[in-house]
Amino acid sequence: DLSRGGVSDRQQGAILTFITYIGCGVSAVFLSATLLTYLCFQKLLRDIPSKILVQLCLSLLLLNLLFLLDGWLALYPAPGLCVSTAFFLHYFLLTSFTWAGLEALHMYLSIVRVFTPYLSRYMLRFSLLGWGEHLPPSTLTPLMG
After folding, report:
1. Of the candidates 91, 88, 83, 84, which has an alpha carbon nearest to the alpha carbon of residue 130?
2. Rg (Cα) of the chain, in Å, rounded?
3. How many CA atoms are closer than 13 Å to the CA of 40, on its beta-carbon side?
């Protein structure tokens, strides 16, 4: 619906909410299974693409769990809870996009540019960029709301 009028039928709204929660729940279950697999088998974490994938899965899992809890947290009238939920939703959404982009960048560097010089502290730089780049813009969310 592109009319931006919202869902007029309560039953249709309940069905859409149910589908959303089922989709996020299934996604959270399989993201958890992926993380547990990588953490149980340490051999899988030896190369950099696996470490980037684990970071992406962690970011997506936290985003999905917070989104699932959002409906329950909205029942409480505390404005600070709403602001902090908005902050973390914004932050984890941005980190998910960044980790997907970093995975694409790593793939580009390893496939297209085969003779790339070695970058020291490669994963540390990626982690600082993936998790730390979005703290300043995300802190603006509570200030604007």
Report:
1. 91
2. 19
3. 6
Helices 79-111 and 135-144, packing angle to 10 deg:
160
| Most distant pair of Cα atoms in the chain: their distance | 59
Please check whether residue 18 is in contact with residue 92, taking contact to mean a CB–CB distance below 8 angstroms.
no
The model's pTM is 0.84
The Cα-based distances of 136 to 10, 129, 141, 145 in angstroms read 38, 12, 9, 15
At 22 the pLDDT is 95
83 neighbors 76 (Cβ within 8 angstroms)? no
Average pLDDT score over residue span 96-114? 88
Looking at residues 48-54, what average pLDDT do you find? Answer: 92
